[in-house]
Amino acid sequence: MSGSPDAEAGYRKRSGSTIRRKSRAACESRGVKVGTLIQDVRYAIRMLGKNPGFALIAILTLGLGIGANTAIFSVVNGVLLRPLPYPEPSQLVALSEKTMNFESSSISYPNFLDWQRSNSAFASMAAYRNDDFSITGSGEAERVRVGMVSAGFFEILGVHPVRGRVFKPEEDRLGTTPVALISAGLWQRKFGSAPDIIGKSITMNGDGYTVIGILPAGFHLESTNFERIKDVYIPIGQNKDPLFHDRTVHPGMRAIGRLKPGVTLAAAQADMDRIATNLATAYPDADKGAGIGIMPLKKDIVGDVQPYLLILLGAVGFVLLIACVNVANLQLSRSTTRAREFAIRAALGASQSRVIRQLLTESILLALAGGALGLSLATWGIQAALRALPENLPRAQEVGLDGRVLMFTLAASTLAGVMFGLVPALKTSRPNLQSTLKESGRGGSGARHRAQGVFVVIEMAMALVLLTGAGLMVRSLVGLWSVYPGFNPRGVLTFAVSLSPSLGVNPATSRSALREMGEKLKSIPGVEAVSSTGGALPMNGDNELPFWLDGQPKPANASEMNESLFYMVEPGYLSVMEIPLLRGRNFTPEDNEHSHQVMVVDESFARQYFPKQDPIGKRIHIGIVDMDPEIVGIVGHVKHWGLDRDGDAKHPILAQAYLYFMQIPDRFWTGPPQTEMILRTKGSPVGLAPTIRKAIGKLNSENVIYEIKPLEEIVADSLANRRFSMVLLSVFAALALLLSSIGIYGVISYVVAQRTHEIGIRIALGAQRHDVLRLMLGEGMKMALVGVAIGVAVALGLTRLMVELLFGVSATDPTTFIAVAAVLTGVALAACYIPARRAMRVDPIVALRYE
Fold it and tell me: Is the pLDDT of residue 572 over 80?
């Protein structure tokens, strides 16, 4: 710009003044907005204070909905959303072997060592497995949970001892000095937090272990077959069992790995596929046809629980929607008494947006108050949920309130306020001034009635969806409980026992001690049958062994071997379990370690390996354990994997065989016997636990009995996730039914109040009271039936998402749909009847005078 200096100075002065005026105006505008908001909040508080009954009901309704959502979200957050509590958790993966029968199987220890040496995708890799040892020499003998882990295990997880150190690679080898890390809990409980524990020796299973470190309190890796907190950790490479170091044996071991920075899961899988191919070439007898599976460690931990939690989160979201609809109905009913107020405000110049903002402010205040109540209820609900959660629910210890849950509650509260406040605000903000002022506050009731009717339809539809889901889950669980597992769990007690390390490694002494214990248990009053068992119990672990049939050449490699579940049992086992004998004979006392080896197989084994033949008298060869037993009997099939999982994609039906425990060759009796005992009792099996513990203790004070549990409880635990989901889904459905019935009751009550004058005229003109009853019931049932019809249509689509959670019932099961529709319609009819009955009792003189 050209011109005189005075002109330029004048221009700058005028420009500066303009900028200052704009800035001041903007500040004043923001101040006005803040002032208006404060004014709206104060006015909303005054209005809610004038109607405390409405405010209390609305806050309670929202509190229930928001509280239930917060409680379930805290579970979903703890189990599914929270990152694992380790450094760089996204780099952690779980590794397993893939076999012909299982996508995820335990790992051969020699194979793991080759994986560790040959991979290029992992910064580090470690193996782990469960065990239980008896600790003696420090007070009373005690059974401790042991984690066998390879060197590097704790470094992968970023865990550091509170005292001492972790294992060195040279300590993770057979024949080296036994060392151990102990948990802070065991240190406090067993050793009184002795400060000089590091370097001291503890005796486990008769062997001395030098304590080199103490792990932080509460540490544990929650992964497949490693869920429990361990008391002691020892190097896995020091395992003395010869089978553990056999490449063809898979001793319940798994592995974790930490990917190198920048390496993707797909690249790691390709690297491990290369290793699997090389191993199959180098060791065809053990690894031909075997693969290596990789998945994120978090996915391995969460397992099959994710669908259940997501279904519950969706269900509880429906409950919140129903609560919002209920409060919106209350708002619409309340707006009838305020119609004149807003008409006057509009006549005095208040804009529609100003009225909407005022009403939304009231709604959001209600929602925030409901959110605060819901948070309190959720705190209690989370504690109740933690007590009710299945024991095997992963990451249950991480469920609780945190910043994410609090943000969720705030967001849910705000969204709820907008949702239930928007429609009433829009309806109330557009009054017909002339009719509203003329009718003294009763104008627009027809429009509100229609809006309330729509809300009731929505409530009924959502309630039907929830009730249908709950009904399908209930029918699934009822169907599962009626499934015959192949044995009778009633009256059976199971427990594990570890006999005294003083027995040493003498097989004859160990067998004698087991027989003595069995006779002692049989002498207890109320005990009908007793058996020890190795390997596994149904629905509690597994033990597969490869074999080939007598008369056929031995397969060239493990992948071509036949495979079966094997149970190591005594003669009383089939009697204790009440597994039916179909053909042949059971084990007898004459079948001992000195007689020829015998076995009993199930009907699946007979059908699969001896089609159109008689298996009785045939032999098989089990090379791993050097046994060639003869088949002497055929029994019924047992649902080993669970009532709902036997035969599905992850748990194929495997043939089952029973070997006589005492006939296991001497070279496998490598230490003091550790076995499961099962007893059939006449009365309550749990009541005998103290007597059993005392009897076993009398045999030897170093005998340790642990994990006492009724077999019925083991069966029930296999359905724990289903049962938990069914209970919560049923609770949410019941809450939805209650809120929906309250909603339709409120609407019909509102209609009766609005049509009192009309009802009076009808009765005055000769209408019978039952006609009035029918009219009012018709109003309510019309809304209910429309809601039911819409709900059925929606449920037909949404219940298909539950297919994997159902058992023995279709996602579109007509019986469930009809029953739920009938129940919901009946409840709606009952909710309509009370206000309809009040309507037919209207006094026409009073009603006409009312106007």
Answer: yes
C-alpha span between 278 and 557 (Å, rounded): 15
DSSP string for 493-514 = EEEEEE--GGGTT-HHHHHHHH
- With 80 as the cut, is the pLDDT of residue 762 above it? no
Q: Other C-beta atoms within 10 Å of 133: how many?
A: 26
Spell out the residues 6+ positions from residue 791 whose beta carbon is closer than 8 angstroms to its own.
460, 461, 462, 463, 464, 465, 468, 821, 824
> How many whole angstroms separate alpha carbon 589 and alpha carbon 600?
15
Q: Token pair for residue 64?
A: 């229930």
Contacts of 25 (CB under 8 A, 6+ apart): none
Give Cα 486 distance to the centre of its chain. 27
Query: Of the candidates 474, 471, 476, 479, which has an alpha carbon nearest to the alpha carbon of residue 792?
Result: 471
DSSP class of residue 804 equals G
Lowest mean pLDDT among 262-266, 540-544, 692-696: 540-544
Bridge-based pairing state of the strands 207-215 and 179-183: parallel
Q: What gap in Å lies between CA 474 and CA 482, rounded to an integer?
A: 12
Provide DSSP, 567-585.
EEE-TTHHHHHTPPEEEE-
Tens of pLDDT, residue by residue over 693-719, are: 899 988 888 888 888 999 998 888 888
Closest alpha carbon to 238 in 149, 175, 181: 175
Residues 6+ apart with CB under 8 A from 521: 527, 530, 677, 679, 692, 695, 696
Does residue 849 carry a pLDDT above 80? no
User: What is the pLDDT averaged over residues 508-530?
Assistant: 91
* 3-class DSSP state of 520: helix
Number of neighbouring beta carbons within 10 Å of residue 255: 26
Mean pLDDT for all residues in the chain = 83
Integer Cα distance of 134 and 217 in angstroms: 21
Rg (CA), the chain: 36
pLDDT score, position 2: 46
Report the pLDDT averaged over residues 461-467. Answer: 91
Give the DSSP H or E segment for 210. Answer: strand 207-215
Residue 401 has phi, psi (to 5 degrees) of -85, 130
Please report the pLDDT score of residue 118 as a whole number.
94
- Give the pairing of strands 207-215 and 163-164: antiparallel
CA angle 174/176/180 to nearest 5° reads 100
Closest among 281, 277, 289, 176 to 235, alpha carbons compared:
176
**Residue position matching structure tokens 């011109």:** 3
Token pair recorded at residue 676: 């499961």
The pLDDT assigned to 11 comes to: 46
pLDDT band (50, 70, 90) for residue 27:
very low
Phi, psi (rounded to 5 degrees) for 763 = -70, -40
Q: Identify the CA nearest to 485 among candidates 146, 718, 801.
A: 718
Q: Tokens 């049958």 correspond to what residue?
A: 529
Cα–Cα distance measured from residue 269 to residue 275, given in angstroms and rounded to the nearest whole number = 10
Rounded Cα distance between 367 and 37, Å, is 17
Q: Which residue has the tokens 């390496």?
A: 263
- Count other Cβ atoms within 10 Å, centred on residue 513: 19
| Half-sphere exposure at residue 451, Cβ-oriented, CA atoms within 13 angstroms | 25
Identify residue 38 by its one-letter amino acid code. I
